[in-house]
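Cross-check.
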Amino acid sequence: DGTENKGKLGANAILTVSIAVARSAAQAKGLPLWKYLCEFSGAQPTLPVPCMNIMNGGAHANWQGADLQEFMIAPYGAPSFREALRWGAEVYQALKTLLKEKGHSTGVGDEGGFAPQVPSNEEPLKLIVEAIKRAGYEPGKDIGIVLDPASSEIYEDGVYNLRTEGRKLTSDEMVEFYKGLCEKYPIVSIEDGLAEDDWEGWKKLTDAIGSKVQLVGDDLFVTNVKRMELGIEKGVANAVLIKLNQIGSVSETVDAIRLAQKNNWGAMISHRSGETVDSFIADMSVAMGTGQIKTGAPARGERVEKYNQLLRIEEEMGASAKYAGRSAFIR
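Predicted model, tokenized:
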């Protein structure tokens, strides 16, 4: 629309047309959407590891629980996507039973994860590890943990306000906080570990644990190639969260993913907290070979539809279907 931020027509309006054109082109060629999108990626189509939100905190739970916003599981040890989905659903149900036993609420947050009141930000991690074991899996080997603290939400006057624990931490203290968590729990990815404008803190976090843990920029990069290039230049983060309606078109999304892959960064395709039942991101994640998708709990129709589409794609691919597995997170 002639503006840098799509201010005239809006990213959502432009993206709607962009997706419609892609779907129409695929139909005209007689191709499944994921196969048509492969023509732009140059990547091997790959079923992604689902990063499944099973506990919510922060703004997604109306600040009733932990300060950190999302606690996810990544069943990367599964042999296929359908098995990964089954593993994730089993852990989700085991967690529900565990929460009931401990007298916690089993109401869900925006993305389908449970949102209990907890005494600390570490408590959800303890509960998740126990739920993984109860479901019959080994934490770290079969299933890893993915965090999205959404730290910009708790960044106030230059410090990070952990209300649940009555603590205010500096950037350096937050880095130590994450280092401690990563030593105790099988955490393979942290998204928005620090605030979007805390570039100095992000650099320290990357230097401290970036060789072992995927550090994903969401608010930091907003799927914007220019901000990603700045991150690459500064040595900040090592992965990007990809949200189509942040950048506003399919072609620009492809550009952002290609930039990440060219620089050996991870790229995690993501839903939004407010979602629809459209499943385009499922096809996109397979076609671009990103190996990771973030699309909520195995609950709520707008989340489950993406998983259903990935199941359909895997079935369609047959024996050639490849599941990303642990390699999606190897640093």
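The first helix runs from residue 11 to 29. The domain at 31-328 is CATH 3.20.20.120 (TIM Barrel). Passed to J.P. for a second look.
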